[in-house]
Design brief:
By secondary structure, the chain is an alpha/beta fold. The protein contains six helices and twelve strands.
Length: 189
């Protein structure tokens, strides 16, 4: 099994380190051709508008959409969550990132404030239990529908969801020492 981490922007090396701790081979993905042979894909945090633009320029965008629709497990953290969504709030529409449109959810960027409002909080994650959430300019999931199911909440807001082969968290598990969320994704593969 090889899990790819989209390496255009964000906490790429941290995700690669977590996968290593899980004893899984990983690959830093920069081009669409590198997607051949990966069993799953992680889209890290960063700036969603920039990531979306750079993925379109490198032909990764359409390839990832096709893989997601075809059943490949994909995990998006923070900006990755934003990109997986079908809908965005007004805050998303202002910056106009092109969304993958894969998950039945509406999201809102920077829902907890800007960089200085970043925080850590213990959350309950369905199937894992207590988990250390690291929220950095984090989005929230405003609502889900269809097969998209919330897995975790913070302060009454949805901060994680799963839809068949797709997983999304508004927080950064790669910035903790806790490998359980990466193992959760690996189990999806």
């Amino acid at each position: 099994m090889i899990i790819g981490v989209v390496g255009i922007q964000g906490a790429v090396s941290e995700h690669l380190d977590m996968l290593k701790k899980c004893n899984v081979d990983s690959l830093w993905i920069r081009k669409a051709e590198q997607l051949c042979g990966v069993s799953g894909l992680i889209i890290p945090g960063g700036e969603s508008t920039t990531i979306s633009k750079l993925m379109r320029e490198s032909s990764l965008f359409d390839s990832i959409v096709d893989l997601g629709k075809g059943g490949m497990p994909i995990y998006g953290t923070c900006a990755g969550l934003v990109l997986l969504a079908k809908q965005g709030c007004e805050n998303v529409k202002k910056t106009e990132p092109k969304l993958f449109g894969l998950m039945d959810m509406k999201i809102c960027r920077n829902a907890f404030g800007n960089q200085k409002e970043s925080f850590e909080a213990e959350i309950d994650f369905e199937g894992i239990g207590k988990y250390p959430g690291v929220f950095i300019r984090a989005p929230i999931i405003d609502k889900t529908w269809g097969n998209c199911k919330p897995l975790s909440f913070y302060d009454g807001k949805i901060v994680a969801a799963k839809q068949s082969n797709l997983l999304a968290t508004s927080f950064h598990p790669e910035l903790t020492d806790d490998i359980r969320l990466h193992e959760f994704f690996i189990d999806m593969i």
